[in-house]
Amino acid sequence: MSGFIRKGVTTALVSLLLFLAAAAHGSDTAVERQSMAGIHALGLFVEELQPNVAKVAAKAGIDAASIRREVERRLTAAGIGVVAGADWAALPGRPFLYININTHETQRFYYAYDIKVELRQVVFPEANPRARITATTWYLSMTGLTDIGNLAVIKNDTLVLVDRFTAAHRSVNSR
Fold first, then answer.
1. What is the pTM of this model?
2. Distance between CA 41 and CA 175 in Å, rounded?
3. Domain total for the chain?
């Protein structure tokens, strides 16, 4: 296959993937939602973006700090307190919302991404209730592909998942 045809096929496939982009999946059932009942405050941990996209994303105003600020604003608006340090350690189950954005440059200026938004908290296994482990009790993730000029879609998709978290939380916690 000539280089011209190969480049055309690659461009067509990337365009199709960009068109179809972001597919969400996760574990958001009634059982997982029940693990949120009674949680009115939590910790928040947003991983730093990976170096392969961080520098470019920062130029577009997208970084872990800006994502954290917007997530904290949305959680607070939904009536979910965000705490840290001793306040977080004093919470029953020490729940925290964990956000990770994994990226991979698929070809020059195109990035595949996988966003995870997870509620993690201390749980007690039935087989050994004295054991205390931190486990994910609710999660959603979204996978997509974007080009360098549209990196804002990564932040937007993260916030879509956070909004789904707040809706799930609201479904089991009355204000």
1. 0.84
2. 13
3. 1
